[in-house]
């Protein structure tokens, strides 16, 4: 009997993460240069990239539906560069991941996972990216400390314009001219080769049951209660922040701006919320998801073996700080 392993074949997800992997490779090369290993600038062969993405997407679709033909009529439509009807100037998600061309300058309008991932992809490919958000945070559903750390981390990659309002929108000589205000102050008009419009579905996510993961640089993850939610609840809780600069692995990887944040119910000591921000945070996020799902206590986490040197140790140390037993970092008073 065939077993359905996926509820549907999300070919868009495969394409997006392939692009993010390419972006990560470019960032790794640039990071190596900063450590004294010099490489030449990446050469972007757009047509070849498009063909490889189309092939990957088609192969995934075939693999996903070969044993479960009943899924064939319920899968996401393939977003190949050949069948997308591209608006040259205004992109939504499908247009952006089709990689129609690499703009010199791109405006990303909106916040959330899609906005940041598209910005990450094109910035790595050489595009200058401005992100226009209506509020002050790129991830409105997450806590302020996560947003603050993330925005400090990426300020060299993107220009973020908070409390932004588009006051005029004009097409001029195959480009888009935007008149924008930020924090109620008018900014000089800007010319963009393309404008990406992000939707706001991320902000509707139920963080108590659905993991949040933005595969950007750095990656941002979260599951469970946030401080924003707990502020209006009757739960007693304690927050532990463990900066990655205390980890040997983060220091050798030049990845010290990261942060692991855990929230414990202070009555029964169970983990009720947690996540991390930093390069490769997605590789250790599964432990947080497992611990929350199984109602692990800080003691359960602290008595689980964590290999050294790894980023996983940040979860161990955060639990030990909560318990007051940490020996590598200062404990909470």
TrEMBL record:
Keyword terms, alphabetized: FAD, Flavoprotein, NAD, Oxidoreductase
Pfam annotation, one family: Pyr_redox_2
Domain Pyridine nucleotide-disulphide oxidoreductase dimerisation: from-to ranges: 216-316
Stretches assigned to the FAD/NAD(P)-binding domain: 24-197
Entry-linked InterPro entries: Class-I_Pyr_Nuc-Dis_Oxidored, FAD/NAD-bd_sf, FAD/NAD-binding_dom, FAD/NAD-linked_Rdtase_dimer_sf, Pyr_nucl-diS_OxRdtase_dimer
Domain of life: Bacteria
GO terms for MF: dihydrolipoyl dehydrogenase (NADH) activity; flavin adenine dinucleotide binding
Cofactor names: FAD
Any one GO BP annotation for this protein: 2-oxoglutarate metabolic process
Family that this chain belongs to: Belongs to the class-I pyridine nucleotide-disulfide oxidoreductase family.
PANTHER family referenced in this protein's UniProt entry, alphabetically: DIHYDROLIPOYL DEHYDROGENASE, DISULFIDE OXIDOREDUCTASE
This protein's name: Dihydrolipoamide dehydrogenase
């Amino acid at each position: 009997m065939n077993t359905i392993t996926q509820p549907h074949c999300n070919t868009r997800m495969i394409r997006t993460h392939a692009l993010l992997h390419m972006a990560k490779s470019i960032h790794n090369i640039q990071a190596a240069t900063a450590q004294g290993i010099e490489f030449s600038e990446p050469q972007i062969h757009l047509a070849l990239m498009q063909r490889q993405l189309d092939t990957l997407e088609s192969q995934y679709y075939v693999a996903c539906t070969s044993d479960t033909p009943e899924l064939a009529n319920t899968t996401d439509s393939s977003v190949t560069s050949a069948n997308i009807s591209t608006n040259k100037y205004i992109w939504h998600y499908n247009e952006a991941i089709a990689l129609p061309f690499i703009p010199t300058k791109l405006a990303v309008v909106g916040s959330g996972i899609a906005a940041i991932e598209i910005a990450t992809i094109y910035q790595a490919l050489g595009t200058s990216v401005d992100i226009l958000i209506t509020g002050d945070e790129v991830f409105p559903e997450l806590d302020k400390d996560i947003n603050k750390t993330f925005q400090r981390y990426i300020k060299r990659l993107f220009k973020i314009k908070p409390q932004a309002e588009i006051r005029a929108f004009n097409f001029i000589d195959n480009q888009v001219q935007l008149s924008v205000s930020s924090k109620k102050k008018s900014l000089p008009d800007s010319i963009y080769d393309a404008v990406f419009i992000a939707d706001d579905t991320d902000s509707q996510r139920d963080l108590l049951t659905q993991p949040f993961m933005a595969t950007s640089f750095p990656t941002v993850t979260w599951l469970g209660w946030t401080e924003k939610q707990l502020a209006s609840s009757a739960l007693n809780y304690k927050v532990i922040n463990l900066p990655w600069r205390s980890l040997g692995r983060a220091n050798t990887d030049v990845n010290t701006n990261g942060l692991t944040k855990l929230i414990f119910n202070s009555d029964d000591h169970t983990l009720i919320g947690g996540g991390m921000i930093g390069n490769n945070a997605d590789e250790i996020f599964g432990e947080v998801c497992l611990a929350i799902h199984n109602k692990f206590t800080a003691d359960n986490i602290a008595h689980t073996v964590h290999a050294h040197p790894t980023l996983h140790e940040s979860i161990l140390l955060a639990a030990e700080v909560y318990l007051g037993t940490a020996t590598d970092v200062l404990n909470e008073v």
